[in-house]
Queue: 3 jobs
Job 1
Amino acid sequence: GKLDRGTSSSSNADDDVFHPLGSNRETIIARFISCGFSMSNLDAASLRKAVAKVACTRRLSAKEPFDEHAALALNLDCYAVACAFGGSNNDGDVRCLLPWLDQSLNNSSSTIKIATIADSSQDKLVGDLYGRIYTHLYNKYPAIRKMVKSALKADLMADTTNDSSAIQNRFRARGGEFWIAIDMESSEVVGCIGVRQRKTKECEDQDDKGGPSSPFSVVEYEVQRLAVDDKHRGKGIGKRLLYAVYEYSLRQGILEKKKKKKGVSVKLLAVTPEALVNANNLYNAFGFIKEESFEGGLTMNVYCKTTMI
């Protein structure tokens, strides 16, 4: 709506466009995705960071500090700026509009591409990657060797008699998808990740004040087979692979919401050995919460990230 002296007048515009985006990052991302944007073309920053960077870029500075600076900084920290772009935007234009970005918004300078797995030749490359990256842990953790061998004989097993990807077919049959990270210069698969749907259940959210309950659906997905080549660690590949899974789960949740015409909670789960320090750190940095740990030949940590749509 249009603001006038502290009051708001109604607008005939689409509610999906002219509407408060949300009070947290996950809600804002979900709204952008529901409008057709990709997570690779989204960015958000605190308003203080955005203003400070713009002021620095434009060489704007106060002649002397004053008390209002502190008050302004605290106030700006209560807000954020979120931007979404189409995939065809020029990187220079994006950086001009968003000077606070530390790197290219769409990673156009990177030689690593994230894509769904395409054929049986890539199945073999995934098997080779997954079979070698954990070998240094086999002696200390025999259970990891067993887990890898089991994966290679099950959902990561290649089928050379067919041109299509057997890995993709298996994950899609379970309501999921499988992605790979490809080095475009060498055509080498340097990372992979999969997701499958676990279950959908119906719940009711009881009003704290005793009002009527609100029905909603909980859609659970599980991250599987996350792996990044040791030679390519530290390039943000694992984070980009997780973004692919997160965006996929949100899109499925949005479809569920449109179909059932009620709220949907997307619950993304991940189970990883505590011995895989980098994987645990990645889940924590991505906003997953560790729910529990259990013993299965070695200590396994269960992480969860929930987004209400």
Job 2
Amino acid sequence: MKSKEEVDTKVQTGTFILSEKIDDTKSKKSEKEMKKEMKKLEKEKQEREKREKKAREKEKEREKQAKKENRDNADLCAKSFTLRKVFLYQAQRYQYNDD
């Protein structure tokens, strides 16, 4: 018969080996999960960057359109001002011709 110490040692050794195997399995699962999580985070980051880039492009397009509209409005104002001057000039000439 084996002494109690030998049995305890074997049980402890067996338990230790078993726990190492379990830990190793857990760490492998953990590594897989970490890789999965990293891929997921990378994908989310790329999607976020894509959305941000698209938003920046939209904002640039809006600014470009606003500048164009401002130029068009300025051109219309200038034309309107010129037409008023011409109209007033012609009205004055017409008045002088009536006299």
Job 3
Amino acid sequence: MGVQLRSVQSRWVSRDLTNKERFKVIGEIEENAAFLQILRYNHILHFYRCSAGPDERTSAFAIRAASHNELTGQPRTRGNPRNIGVATAVDKMMRDIFPDLESSSAIYRRKRRAVLACRKFGQRLHILAECFGEAFLSLIHFGQSSEVASPVISEKIIIAPPDEVFGNFVKILEDSQGSLLRKMSAAAKPAFEHILYEDTRQQKLFALEEQTPEDILKFPKGSQELRNLLQ
């Protein structure tokens, strides 16, 4: 898949295309949008996990909101231990990623806000993955196609709510359909790993790939028939 994607991308940046070729490129980009989004979210998830301490790698629902001081300054010597821990972790990440930036500079503060926001988003993805399985991230629909009418989950839906609201949201998911989501995630795991890591153990098309979006939507939600398509 990686070689194929690189070959496709070489056409995406070409200046000299006919309208026929350009229309094909538009379709290729739309088809790859979901893959690139899943890939990005997987990296954000592991970006967080690589910086999280053992106490942060739990599926606890409450996520502490970043304070203004954490967004702009250094760890405080007094205050909420969680706040200090996150600020310290972000400072270490900044040293690793941007070792040459002066901590007093405007660009440092801007990059630090971006790193902190990415880490917090990764933490929320981590909670969802811990509760429902990592392949759950591949089940969230990010597509913008008008051909299939279905709910679209945006980053804002995940990251914008206050901690308490997000915690309640995850609890509602757990209470209402937690078991179903875990079954769907488990069924999607082989396809998820094949997409992300080019798992060569999968030598043939998944049954899902032979179905149109319209046909897939005809299957009852969470049905065994739908899960079989992923295996």
